[in-house]
């Protein structure tokens, strides 16, 4: 990946709660990295990770976390209101047994260069952002191909909701968030 300079990928950022479907801003990966390593979501992330009940945790996350749609800029969060695809794909890995091992593998992957990688709000998953080339195929086909590759290569399942271009991704606090150095 070359330095994106003055033309970085842009996507929609939404202020909480999840029922808000109108974007607040357009973000870049650097904006997102700064948000995640900053303190905006630290208190909510800490509280979420202390909630033991699955439904209560889901409701808390929906009400207390800002989110973005990594795959594009939208006028409203749904697939029909995509203004421009970002060329990014967010892959979500839930309930990992060995999160650190998968993190290390993804960072060294020979086919996909990690743009952003961070721990999920719950703390037991990862969000992996990569570039995709939409001149080859559409978003959902690309998603399926990458998901199949990850299953074959790392024996890990990807959350299938990522095939939706308007998929929301909650932004937690993660001081160990990785960003591709070319984006700095």
Explained architecture:
- By secondary structure, the chain is an alpha+beta fold.
- The chain has one domain.
- It has five helices and ten strands, in the order ββαααββββαββαββ.
- The protein has helices spanning 29-37, 42-48, 54-64, 99-107, 139-154, and strands at residues 11-14, 25-27, 67-69, 72-74, 82-85, 88-93, 114-119, 126-131, 169-170, 178-179.
- The strands form three sheets. Strands 2-1-3-9 form a four-stranded antiparallel sheet. Strands 6-8-7-10 form a four-stranded antiparallel sheet, with helices on both faces. Strands 4-5 form a two-stranded antiparallel sheet.
- Strand 4 (72-74) and strand 5 form a beta hairpin.
- The radius of gyration is 15 Å and the shape is globular.
Layout of SSEs?
Elements: E1 11-14, E2 25-27, H1 29-37, H2 42-48, H3 54-64, E3 67-69, E4 72-74, E5 82-85, E6 88-93, H4 99-107, E7 114-119, E8 126-131, H5 139-154, E9 169-170, E10 178-179
Antiparallel strand pairs: 1-2, 1-3, 3-9, 4-5, 6-8, 7-8, 7-10
Q: Helical element count?
A: 5
- Determine the mean pLDDT: 95
Distance between the termini: 13 Å
Q: What can be said about the biggest beta sheet?
A: 4 strands, antiparallel
- The number of distinct structural domains comes to 1
What is the helix fraction of residues, given as a range? 25-40%
Rough outline = globular
